[in-house]
Amino acid sequence: MRSLLLLLTALLATARPVKAQTDWLVTEVRADDSSNDSGKTTLRVAEILRARGEHVVDPKAAASELEHKHSRMPVRLQPEELEQLDKALRTLADHLASESLNEARAALEEVERLTPDARDYLNREVNRARRRFHTCLLAAHLFAKEGYDDDAFEQVRKCARDFPGFEPEEGAYMPDSIKSFFRRAREELESIRPATLIVRAETGSTERCRARVNGIDQGEVPARVTDVRADSVRVQLECDGRSGRIYNLPVQPGTIELVIDPRLDRALDTNATLRLHYPNATIAGELRERHSLQIARVIGVGHVLEVFDGRLTRRDLATGATTEADLSKTSLEAAVDSVRAAPAQEPAVAPMAAVTADPVEPSDRSSLYPPLAWISVGAVAVAGTVMFGGWRLYRDAAPRYESEACLKMGDPRTRGEQCPNLYDRASTGRTVMYIGGISAGVFAGLATLFFVLDAEGGAESAASAQRLPCTAGVGDAGVSCRVSF
After folding, report:
1. I need a surface site. Which of 53, 206, 233, 431 has the fewest CB within 10 A?
2. What is the spatial distance between Cα 26 and Cα 42, in angstroms, rounded to a whole number?
């Protein structure tokens, strides 16, 4: 019974908490031409709200969640790191040229240990990216030559995922075996339905931007990348020479248009904590409301409290309404209490439409996982009770049945009155105990399975919720999905 209780406790622990939409996010807003001493004030505001019983999202946790759901800071490798990685790539190429399979696998694994963002940084030079692509294909060729066909074509598919838009190119002096394999690789790639990706900068931006997909320069926006054969890609805008944030974009066959706001891209700072940073106070005044609400939608909080230039500004996600307090005219605690308690004023401009994920309708099967899991937990409890009852019955009857008095009578099932009764009770108890134990084990396994399937479904829904919705409007002929960040 003790182990049964431990099992039930473990199963109950799989329940996932749901974040309330009444959570608060306290955001520091900075401008280069304004006072930038708001960091300590931001921490103090959060402490006051918590003391008032409000749930405030930790700014470091908010930064981490935003990087997971929306975009993350760009990677920059130092020259010595690039030289070391180039050396590793040359070593890999040498092992492939000498057809040393084990050494080539080891060198390939060393490169693969890099994060995807770091590997993308290697692709910033187009020539290096093409060399990496052909090295990737040559590794697949070596796998096939050594008889590892499954590994070879999985490697081909990986090359397509890592280098969207690239195709195998046959050189005039290539050996026939490599040319033949490249033709097979091309056939394999052509069997995968491609997507076309269009990357645009949001209307209103005056910056000149280029698009990078998996680190590869795709030209000025709007940039069009064809023959994308991947489940997802990593997209960046590079505006006026500044490397932008990295956006994970799920990909499906068809034409997908990604619209990125360079101004939000530039303002977001998640390096140590979550903050908005603008070139000057004028730009901050124009954009911080829009950007704060966008951040709130991504993280899933109901209220944002900005700390900027000696003022507290509360914004409500549901209505877009705003309440402000001037810190020069009142104490910090009084200012927090005023914006917390006062009814929010109507916004000066209409609130932006809520940015939510496309609704993901659960299948009938997946929606049954939670009730089936809890039914199985109940069945474990019932089976455990039955097993315990059988054990007690067997424990009471078996020693008496096996006593010397019964054994002297020969077959106790046919002699006397007490012995057959004890035999039947012991036999029944043993049978019930076995059935109860086996049933408890089976139902415990089913409960665990259903909880795991439900958790995977929740993770898949969460991953879907990370995508902003596909929308298409008038004049969008041929665009099957438009995603805005």
Report:
1. 53
2. 6
What's the CATH code of the domain at 121?
Answer: 1.25.40
Partners of residue 325 on adjacent β-strands: 312
**What's the whole-number mean pLDDT along residues 129-149?**
88
Neighbouring residues of 227: CB distance < 8 A, sequence distance ≥ 6: 164, 165, 167, 189, 194, 196
pTM of the predicted protein model: 0.66
**1 in a domain, yes or no?**
no
Q: Is residue 348 part of a domain?
A: no
Q: What is the pLDDT of residue 191?
A: 82
Give pLDDT, residue 370: 76
* Spatial CB neighbours of 149, under 8 Å, sequence gap ≥ 6: 143
Does residue 483 or residue 142 have the better pLDDT? 142
My answer on whether 186 and 202 are in the same domain is no
Residue of 289, 299, 276, 291 lying closest to 356 (CA atoms) = 299
State the average pLDDT for the chain: 79
Q: Token pair of 172, please?
A: 């005039």
Which residues form the domain of 243? 195-257+474-484
**Buried/exposed 336-361: b ≥16 CB within 10 Å, e otherwise:** bbbbbeeebeebeeebeeeeebeeee
Sequence-ordered strand ranges (E) for 193-310: 195-201, 209-213, 216-220, 223-228, 232-239, 242-243, 247-250, 254-260, 268-269, 275-278, 303-308
Distance (Å, whole) CA 383 – CA 227: 56
Match 């020969």 to its residue by tokens.
410
CB of 86 closer than 8 Å to CB of 52:
no
- In contact, 51 and 249? CB cutoff 8 Å: no
The token pair at 427 is 């036999």
Helical spans, DSSP H, in 13-78: 38-51, 59-69
Mean pLDDT of all residues in 111-116? 84
Can you tell me whether residue 237 is helix, strand or coil?
Answer: strand
The CA distances from residue 111 to 118, 146, 155, in Å, are 10, 21, 14
Domain annotation covers residue 121: yes
Count of domains observed in the chain = 4
Residue 9 in any domain: the answer is no
**84-96: pLDDT as tens digits:** 888 888 888 888 8
Q: Contact, 50 vs 42, CB < 8 A? A: no
The answer to whether the CB of 89 falls within 8 A of the CB of 112 is: no
